[in-house]
Write a structure and sequence with these properties.
The complex is a heterodimer of chains A (160) and B (630). Chain A is of the alpha+beta class and 160 residues long. Chain A is 12% helix and 24% strand. In chain A, the strands form three sheets. In chain A, strands 5-6-7 form a three-stranded antiparallel sheet. In chain A, strands 1-4 form a two-stranded antiparallel ribbon. A two-stranded antiparallel ribbon of chain A has the order 2-3. The radius of gyration of chain A is 24 Å and the shape is elongated. The chains are: A alpha+beta (160), B alpha/beta (630).
Chain lengths: 160, 630
């Protein structure tokens, strides 16, 4: 559903321009505010809507199949680790609020820095194992699956 | 033109496109190459790029061996039957034996994975899927990739790979341009891991006008994985194996959670079960080995996705459409109703918008389903992509040439959509493939395979000129006409895309012809697409944004040409419901129980096609799946 930007809310900060995966949120040079330059390449992914610090961006369903008068709004909060949605139907009969977590850890804190972990041994390099393996495969001391360990053969031809 | 040339030199590992495959590669490369120079180039912003930009509500590939659920060979068997036998089982097994460790890492990084409170295991949607609150799936994994990379070049669209001039058929980096500054970027690198995307928008979409962006796969998935690698002369496999999706009409909202978790089901417009009546005829087309409803019922062996599509397509053609998803029963339970909506908000917000706009409340009406236009990709229920080496401990000789996930171009690796023959990898499997490719790329460098690479200034200058040519074409010819988009000297990227989509739809089996094609149509299509290729030399771009669209179009074009060649080569109907060869309407295991492999000669543009043998894992015993997934 193509995005659009409310004139009075946008201050031209460019967060939407920076995040849009489709490169369609651009700043209008005269008005110094953002707008959707190519609605037919919009996936309604809401990346820009979520990134806008002023809730200036909204979505209006595609003109070719979505009637007017609906609303799906969102606030994503990294500090709280939540995303809050509100869906309103065109006929006003349904008005839903839905909340979901977006992370279980303080934002950005839990990803490892692999430059700082102990370097892999030669044995590890020569094996089929990846970082954190074999431990993380089953969270126990078991090894990696192989054809031999699983009693398998790989055979040419028509097999079902 | 005053754009600068910016050279990034001495790169060990260049990640070309950082969706789930690319982020996996960048992340893991740091572990095996702690002193190596790792660089990411991505045409958008890695925090929201690739197919998972919007988020996901499920991880569709997780074995759960830790909870006694599935082993890697179970996954292989599932992918094999779903793809009508056509899978690189070495690659599938390899991905499956590592994928759980990827998912366990994700959980540690903060990705909320739902738990089955009773069992303590992850909450299953189906046998393979686990449910997540994945709105921030991409930013979380991108954070990990960012910590591993030396540099991330966001908004740099890669257009070509660089080739070594001291050794034939060896990669030397990549070039592209910054979609903000317009500057020319040159990345000289010992290896390239291609994590770029598959292709949406090459077949005419059902949506029209403003809605043309409402495609199933992201509109920014421009087939660049294939465009980059085909142009460099890498062999491709299974490019005929496009996928058609049965999804909620217009919004293409996902159906997996509905079928598996909410236990909804489909019926025709008159409230009848329709699927089983098409199966006897279909069984004659594909054989009992691939479709046996009784066996499927008894053993939980799935009916292949394409064959279920076939039933929908046939029923609609018989005049009993539309097909409905029966939601009215499940949605009476407020908990399940909430999951139904969360499922859309987590990965296809547009479907929620569409139902809100149309006042579709699935509690009180059964929404319509449709079959989509075809897509070309390699990580969902299809396996298009590059012909890559498998791991040394699993792969037979025809599938092994030294480095896991390396293409037939030395030093060029593939992950996610880029790696062929590995369907059902989805997000977690794509990330895992990136990790496997990264380890192998580090080994390739450590083995001294990337010594003495030479890239001449002439190659760099030649690519620069090519990249900006659409801007130059516009500058030279646009003032020849008063105004408007009609010009006898060029076409703009949108016009070129429309032409490509119409051609693919009509000659290569799009929705407009009920997914039907034949040798005659394909040959006409090949002639027409060759001429489109000539006209694409004259594509014009009025600004840098349009230049991005011009290069996406060129990648889509190379992808499409390959799809034509592969579709013509495989003279059978292997996947009814994905497409039909009218001149060979049966599955033909005698002649076509093989993988198709192609190569486009970079100098002449000529295609050569070959058959590669299929290998299957045998000797294992099917384990009964857990009866209750909840």
């Amino acid at each position: 559903m193509p995005t659009f930007v409310y004139m009075t809310r946008c201050d031209g900060c460019g967060e939407c321009v920076d995040i849009c995966p489709s490169d369609i949120m651009h700043i209008d040079k005269k008005l110094r505010r953002a707008y959707n330059i190519e609605p037919n390449m919009c996936w309604e992914c809401y990346s820009c809507v979520k990134a806008c610090p002023h809730q200036a961006i909204d979505v209006r369903g595609y003109a070719d199949f979505a009637p007017l008068g609906h609303s799906v709004r969102v606030i994503r909060d990294e500090e709280k680790g939540t995303i809050a949605w509100r869906i309103k139907f065109r006929n006003g009969k349904k008005d839903m609020e839905l909340l979901a977590p977006i992370t279980t850890k303080p934002w950005g804190s839990a990803t490892p820095k692999l430059a700082d972990v102990p370097a892999p041994s030669k044995e590890m390099r020569d094996s089929q194992l990846l970082f954190n393996e074999p431990k993380y495969i089953r969270m126990d001391d078991g090894g990696l699956h192989t054809l031999q360990s699983n009693g398998l053969e790989i055979k040419k031809g028509v097999q079902y | 033109m005053s754009y600068q040339t910016i050279i990034e030199d001495n790169i060990d590992i260049l990640v070309a496109g950082a969706g789930l495959g690319g982020t996996g590669a960048a992340f893991e490369a740091r572990y095996w190459g702690q002193n190596k120079k790792i660089v990411i180039a991505e045409k958008a912003n890695i925090m929201r790029s690739g197919a998972v930009a919007q988020g996901l509500y499920a991880i569709n590939c997780y074995m759960g061996t830790r909870f006694g659920e599935n082993n890697p060979e179970d996954h292989v068997r599932y992918a094999r039957i779903d793809l009508m036998g056509m899978v690189r089982e070495d690659l599938a097994f390899d991905m499956a034996r590592h994928v759980d460790s990827t998912v366990h890492n994700f959980e540690e990084w903060g990705l909320p994975i739902m738990r089955n409170e009773k069992k303590g295991s992850y909450l299953r949607e189906g046998r393979w899927q686990i449910m997540i609150h994945g709105e921030s799936y991409k930013p979380i994994v991108a954070e990990a990739a960012k910590k591993s990379a030396d540099k991330v070049f966001n908004r740099v669209c890669l257009t070509h790979l660089l080739m070594d001039e001291s050794k034939e058929n060896r990669v030397a980096g990549a070039v592209g341009f910054n979609v903000r500054t317009g500057n020319y970027h040159v990345f000289k690198s010992k290896t390239v891991i291609c994590g770029a995307g598959g292709a949406s928008n090459i077949f005419k979409p059902r949506s029209v006008g403003e809605g043309a962006g409402r495609v199933w796969y992201a509109p920014w998935s421009s087939g660049s994985a294939y465009g980059l690698m085909i142009e460099a002369g890498a062999k491709m496999t299974q490019m005929e194996n496009r996928i058609v999706l049965a999804r909620f009409k217009d919004g293409y909202g996902p159906v997996g959670a509905y079928f598996l978790h909410l236990k909804t089901y489909t019926q025709n417009a008159y409230g009848e079960e329709y699927e089983s009546k098409w199966f006897p005829e279909l069984q004659k087309m594909v054989g009992k080995e691939y479709l046996d409803p009784e066996v499927s019922h008894r053993t939980h062996r799935p009916i292949p996705t394409c064959l279920r599509n076939h039933a929908i397509i046939s029923e609609v053609n018989a005049g009993r459409g539309p097909i409905h998803m029966v939601t009215m029963e499940a949605f009476q339970d407020p908990h399940l109703e909430e999951i139904g909506w969360h499922n859309f908000l987590g990965m296809t917000v547009g479907q929620a918008v569409l139902w809100a706009a149309n006042d579709v409340d699935p509690k009180y009406e059964n929404p319509e389903l449709t079959t989509s236009e075809p897509y070309v990709m390699g990580s969902h229920a299809t396996g298009c992509g590059a012909w890559v080496s498998g791991p040394e401990d699993l792969s037979p000789p025809e599938y092994f040439w030294g480095y896991n996930r390396m293409t037939t171009v030395e030093g060029l690796f593939g992950a996610g959509d880029a790696a062929g023959g590995t369907p059902h990898a989805f997000s977690s499997g794509s990330f895992t493939e990136g990790r496997l490719a990264a380890k192998a790329a580090c080994k390739y460098i450590d083995d001294g395979k990337a010594e003495g690479i030479r890239v001449s200034d002439a190659q760099i200058a030649r690519r620069r000129e090519q990249i900006y040519k659409p801007l130059e074409t516009y500058r030279v010819y646009s003032n020849e006409v008063v105004a408007g988009s009609v010009n006898p000297n060029f076409i703009n990227p949108r016009q070129g895309l429309d032409r490509l989509q119409k051609l693919m739809d009509e000659y290569c089996g799009g929705f407009g012809v009920n997914y039907m094609t034949n040798d005659k149509l394909l040959n006409i299509g090949l002639k027409k697409i060759a001429i489109l290729g000539e006209d694409l030399e004259k594509v014009a771009a009025s600004d840098i944004h349009e230049l991005l669209r011009a290069w996406e179009l060129k990648h889509r074009f190379l992808t499409s040409e390959s799809v034509f060649q592969h579709t013509l080569f495989r003279k059978e109907t292997r996947w009814p419901g994905y497409y039909y060869r009218g001149d060979a309407m049966k599955l033909d295991d005698k002649n076509w129980h093989v993988l198709t492999v192609s190569r486009r000669d970079p100098k002449t543009g000529e295609y050569t096609m070959e058959k590669a043998p299929l290998y299957h894992l045998v000797g294992d015993v099917e384990k009964a799946p857990p009866e209750d997934h909840h």
